[in-house]
């Protein structure tokens, strides 16, 4: 089974990093690292209170799979819908700073998995294009 | 071309189509989202047949063993019969063998099935009061030749089913049982056998954990096992003597009863917050298999903390009990 090696997402050509770092099994490891970083960070973990962790992990895996150019069906519309009503305990929505923090955590998790700096840069650039959908702006 | 059976219908699976494509194409409302094998929303269960390995990618070992698969990733090579995970429709008739009070508000119900059911201790069944009302209860015992099922039932205030069990049900009565369901059980393989295990539960969360403990001991589990049972007061703890007896010949099995307040009713009970005591087990849960059962809030709280202390999410089996009136 091989995944598409060369795909273009939102105008950015991703030579599939997903494939290179080991596909689906690597994503499982990445999710544990990424989610743990997010939950440990008081600046963003308020958005994750009371969620079902297994469901959330599945979504995070989809997010990282998309970010690394793996098989996904995510569209801007889904990202926008999915993040629209998310609020922390004080009723605040997701802002630009939160998105930046999440992108940094995704980068750090991939770095721990041995993904190179150049590739992490490409991934971060792709994630940047989702910013307005996530902050609903 | 292979044939797909679902809810009594038979469909031909077109070349290249998945189980999900086929069922959606015939107007069935199957939950799904990403259609890329990631979100797991379209998870289904095998009733008969085999699925390609890729259709079980990303699932927990216990889910694979129970025949779960992702319908969006499944292009069967042979005839297949499937159902939704909630549709396990096999019902068994069972006779009440005994009803024993384990504490002020918990009763042990043992029933004998009219035919063998293949289950793992720790899975759950639905107990039906009549054709309209059922509740889910975990299985506390190992499968046996006698076809017995042991449940621990807590009396809920105004609980329709628990009122019936506490005040009406008697030895010899016949009830309906449906199952088995769930993936909270001891999964035996070479790797798991030596891994340390944490079993932690509150209230009747003890039932599945006691089942899993029995299974692990029977399978000669080699890693350490820590078994925590929590309650508000030590008077609500039960099976204390029984567990101490069961584990007395094992050097690597530890039983820790925890109560928020102790009245001296139970010997050697640890007084304190359940979650804090459980987290004291080790500095890192990396490489552990973890089973958490009972009070939903407590289960989620501990699940999060254990994950932050290094356990992989895939190795944490959380069975949060949602109370019903």
Question: What's the arrangement of secondary structure elements?
Answer:
The complex is a heterodimer of chains A (about 140) and B (about 325).
Chain A: E1 6-9, E2 12-15, H1 17-20, H2 23-39, H3 53-67, H4 76-84, H5 96-112, H6 117-128, H7 131-135
Antiparallel strand pairs in A: 1-2
Helix pairs in contact in A: 2-3, 2-5, 5-6
Chain B: E1 3-6, E2 9-12, H1 19-25, E3 43-48, H2 61-65, E4 68-70, E5 80-83, E6 91-103, E7 106-113, E8 124-128, E9 134-138, E10 148-154, H3 160-167, E11 174-181, H4 190-194, E12 197-202, H5 206-218, E13 225-233, H6 240-247, E14 253-261, E15 270-271, H7 274-279, E16 289-295, H8 296-308, E17 316-321
Parallel strand pairs in B: 1-5, 12-13, 12-16, 13-14, 14-15, 16-17
Antiparallel strand pairs in B: 1-2, 3-4, 3-5, 6-7, 6-11, 7-10, 8-9, 8-11
Question: Quick one: how many beta strands of chain B?
Answer: 17
Average residue-wise pLDDT of chain A: 82
Q: How many helical elements of chain A?
A: 7
Tell me the fraction of residues in β-strands of chain A, as a range.
Answer: 5-15%
- Roughly how much helix do the residues of chain A carry, as a percent range? 55-70%
Residue share in helices of chain B? 10-25%
Secondary structural class of chain B: alpha/beta
- The end-to-end span of chain A amounts to 39 Å
Order of helices and strands of chain A: EEHHHHHHH
Describe the global form of chain B. Answer: globular
Which regions of chain A are unreliable across 5 or more consecutive residues at pLDDT < 50?
1-6
Straight-line distance between termini of chain B: 49 Å
Structural class category of chain A: mainly alpha
Principal-axis shape of chain A equals: globular
The fraction of residues assigned to DSSP E strands of chain B is 25-35%
Largest sheet of chain A: 2 strands, antiparallel
């Amino acid at each position: 089974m091989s995944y598409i090696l060369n795909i273009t997402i939102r105008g950015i050509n991703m030579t599939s990093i997903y494939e290179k770092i080991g596909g689906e099994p690597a994503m499982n490891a990445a999710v544990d690292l990424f989610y743990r970083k997010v939950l440990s960070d008081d600046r963003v973990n308020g958005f994750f209170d009371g969620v079902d962790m297994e469901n959330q992990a599945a979504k995070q895996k989809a997010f990282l799979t998309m970010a690394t150019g793996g098989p996904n069906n995510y569209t801007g519309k889904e990202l926008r819908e999915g993040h629209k009503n998310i609020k922390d305990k004080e009723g605040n929505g997701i802002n630009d700073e939160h998105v930046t923090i999440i992108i940094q955590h995704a980068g750090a998790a991939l770095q721990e998995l041995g993904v190179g700096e150049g590739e992490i840069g490409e991934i971060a650039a792709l994630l940047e294009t989702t910013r307005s959908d996530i902050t609903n702006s | 071309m292979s044939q797909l059976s679902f809810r009594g219908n038979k469909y031909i699976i077109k070349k290249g189509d998945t189980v999900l494509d086929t069922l959606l194409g015939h107007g069935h409302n199957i939950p799904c989202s990403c259609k890329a094998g990631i979100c797991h929303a379209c998870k289904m269960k095998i009733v008969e047949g085999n699925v390609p390995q890729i259709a079980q990618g990303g699932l927990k070992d216990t889910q694979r063993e129970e025949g779960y698969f992702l319908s969006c990733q499944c292009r069967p090579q042979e005839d297949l019969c499937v159902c939704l995970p909630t549709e396990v429709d096999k019902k068994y008739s069972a006779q009440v063998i005994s009803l024993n009070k384990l504490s002020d508000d918990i009763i042990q119900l043992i029933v004998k099935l009219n035919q063998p059911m293949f289950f793992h201790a720790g899975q759950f069944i639905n107990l039906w009061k009549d054709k309209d009302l059922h509740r889910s209860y975990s299985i506390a015992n190992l499968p046996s030749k006698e076809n017995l099922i042991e449940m621990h039932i807590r009396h809920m205030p105004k609980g329709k089913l628990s009122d019936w069990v506490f005040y009406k049900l008697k030895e010899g009565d016949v009830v309906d049982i449906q199952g088995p369901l769930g993936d909270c059980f001891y999964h035996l393989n070479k790797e798991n056998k030596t891994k340390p295990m944490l079993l932690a539960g509150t209230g009747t969360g003890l039932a599945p954990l006691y089942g899993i403990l029995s299974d692990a001991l029977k399978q000669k589990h080699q890693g350490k096992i820590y078994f925590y049972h929590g309650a508000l007061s030590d008077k609500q703890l039960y099976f204390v003597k029984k567990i101490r007896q069961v584990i007395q010949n094992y050097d690597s099995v530890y039983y820790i009863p925890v109560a928020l307040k102790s009245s001296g009713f139970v010997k050697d009970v640890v007084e304190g917050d359940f979650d804090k005591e459980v987290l004291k087990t080790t500095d890192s849960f990396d490489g552990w298999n973890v089973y958490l059962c009972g009070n939903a809030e407590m289960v989620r709280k501990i699940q999060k903390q254990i994950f932050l202390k290094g356990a992989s999410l895939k190795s944490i089996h959380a069975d949060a009990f949602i109370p019903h009136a």
